[in-house]
Amino acid sequence: MTDLSFAQRLADTLGTDAVSTSADEIEPWLSDWRGMYKGKAQAVVRPSTTDEVAACLALCSDARVPVVPRGGNTGLCGAATPDASPNNVILSLDRMHAIRSIDTTGNTMVAEAGCILGNLRRAAEEQHRLLPLSLAAEDSCQLGGNLSTNAGGVNVVRYGMTRELALGLEAVLPNGEIFHGLRTLRKDNTGYDLKQLMIGAEGTLGIITAAALRLYPRNDVRVVVLAAVNSAQQALELFELLFERGGPRMQAFEFFTAECLDLVLAHVEGMRAPFAERHPAYVLIELADTVDETALRALVETVIGEALERELCTDAAVSESIAQVNSMWRLREEISEAQRADGPHVKHDVSLPIEAIPAFLETAGERVEKHHAGVRLIVFGHFGDGNLHYNLSRPSGAPRDFFAQHGEGLTAEVLDEVARYGGSISAEHGIGQLKRDYFSRYKDPLEIRLMREIRKVFDPHGIMNPGKIF
Question: Which GO terms describe its molecular function (predicted)?
Answer without folding.
Answer: catalytic activity; FAD binding
